[in-house]
From TrEMBL:
It comes from Paenibacillus foliorum. Keywords: Membrane, Transmembrane, Transmembrane helix. The lineage of its organism: Bacteria, Bacillati, Bacillota, Bacilli, Bacillales. The chain crosses the membrane at residues 12-34, 54-74, 95-115, 127-147, 154-174, 186-206. It comes from the Bacteria. This is DUF1405 domain-containing protein. It holds the Pfam family DUF1405.
Length: 218
């Protein structure tokens, strides 16, 4: 099997690949919510339980990517003549998966290594989080040709993403940072918002590329 084969539509849509990513992301999501549990408890006790949806950023992103893979698994078990389901719920799930997985994949790695640059010690968990979050960003891009989302889904998810940024840095429910970055909160907030814009643009460009490729396949 050539290297190019691993990036082919046939390989990425194979049940082996889909089930592998489904379980990897599902287990990663569970681990992620456990990772955020202390902050979620702190937020509910000291602020408001209404803020909880805005606390666990990365595991929520991987949860939606798990859902996107779930839709592809359903497609894989449908008759070959049947068209993939592409309702508005699926579109929002996919757009959420792409935008937030790319955003928080890059964000988490950036924060870890910015902290290290400023003097934080590097441990095995930092390496694990670096690899897993880079994987989040990569897998969001990998399935470009198999998504079904359109512009309206991007707009809905973009609105949530910027609302999440506002809640994070306007109300202080941003993910707990390395101690060395606490005095750089303004810069972190600006970087996060800029990354949101980039992630939305990436999702839009991916949609346009997908539509162009689909026309060529007709």
């Amino acid at each position: 099997m050539s290297f190019k084969t691993y990036f082919s539509k046939a390989f990425l849509s194979s049940r082996f690949m889909l089930w592998s990513l489904f379980w990897i992301n599902l287990l990663g999501t569970i681990y992620g919510y456990q990772w955020y549990w202390k902050q979620m408890t702190f937020t509910a006790e000291t602020m408001s339980s209404a803020y909880l949806p805005f606390v666990p950023d990365s595991p929520t992103a991987s949860l939606f990517f798990t859902g996107a893979i779930g839709f592809l698994l359903v497609d894989s078990y449908r008759k070959q003549s049947a068209q993939p389901s592409n309702g508005w719920i699926r579109g929002i799930v996919e757009a959420f998966a792409v935008i937030t997985s790319f955003k928080y994949g890059i964000w988490a790695v950036s924060m870890i290594w910015a902290g290290v640059y400023q003097g934080d010690s590097l441990n095995w968990q930092d390496w694990m989080l670096t690899i897993s979050h880079l994987g989040m960003a990569a897998e969001a891009l990998l399935y470009l040709r198999l998504y079904t989302y359109r512009s309206m889904s991007i707009l809905v998810v973009a609105a949530w993403t910027f609302l999440n940024d506002y809640m994070d840095y306007g109300y202080g429910v941003y993910p707990w940072l390395p101690e060395s970055l606490e005095d750089d909160l303004y810069a972190v907030a600006a970087f996060t918002v800029e990354l949101s814009f980039v992630s939305v643009i990436v999702a839009y460009v991916m949609m346009k590329i997908r539509l162009i490729l689909a026309k060529r396949e007709l």
